[in-house]
Amino acid sequence: MSIFVQTHQDSTSRARLGRLTLGHGVVETPVFMPVGTAGTVKGILHEHVASIGYDLILGNTYHLYLRPGLDVLKSYGGLHAFSAWNGNLLTDSGGFQVFSLTGLRKIEEEGVAFQSHIDGSRHLFTPESVIDTQHIIGSDIAMVLDVCTPPSIDHRKARDAMELTHRWAQRALDHRNQLGEDFKGKLFGIVQGNFYEDLRSESAAFFNEMAFDGIAIGGLSVGETSEEFAHFLAHTASRITDEKPRYVMGIGSPDYILEAVENGIDMFDCVLATRMARNGGLFTKDGVITMKKAIHKFDKGPVQEGCPCPACTTYSRAYLHHLFKAGEMLGPMLATIHNLTFFHTFLKEIRHAIAQDRYATFKREYLGRFYAK
Fold this sequence. Notes:
The chain is an alpha/beta fold.
């Protein structure tokens, strides 16, 4: 039984509305997922994440495997109970984190051997062990282990990485099937192929034919130009079946989100919202404002007029400016609540525009205002 139902197709683009049915409730799509890498969305209580309206967040297998470790998570029955999160949880397989450990990892047929960035201890991730780890975490959506590649490699190396990703995906699927009903989560495959159209097409076709619950597009937003991102996003998304949810990993700026939705993407995540908040960057409909700038010192207005978050309804720009200049931790906390509220509202507006068959107009007008300065 499919976990995804498309409920409306925009008449002006490939943007669509849908509904994901997961272990901890139904999720309306398109959806943005806050990132809680190590079992926490930084700077905010999980109950506040839920009160904003989020019902799906992301954790990371690599980080959770290393700390707190599988023994701790197993003793709690998974990350939901350990972290007091009652909504849905998607976990990245850790493939990207391992890929980024240049000089500390080795990719072979069996899996990825790597050294911990924490203490240098040696570990091995295999397609099967990553499924087992996410099973212990209690992921509502688990991701397969894949081979991430930089944008500069040649076609042969890109093909080799893609084909290894495909073999690993089959092993992951076989292992999930062996676990049977014990494995409660849903499993997504990941399209690879670097920046080569033929490989992207081949990888999408491969995953279309497999019994995964959803399909992610990997290997984007890894240092390529925005033009390359848009081209290969459109090329890949158009070749993924409409029957399953589509997920682009690691995008979080309004322009990239709008581009993804226009191409029929249903899910995306990024650390941008919370990372910028911790550094004083707050999202508004008129662009990002930097709270550390002196221009805000006497500003009695809210960060964003009409925003329901406490940073806007209770405090002024001047107060937030003071908090950041004084190094008070309340500043990043309020900014995090604001930015997550901004993106939740942004996605509600996107879904409303799709429902009214005016997505193309909405995208043009939103970008025109956001990047007007």
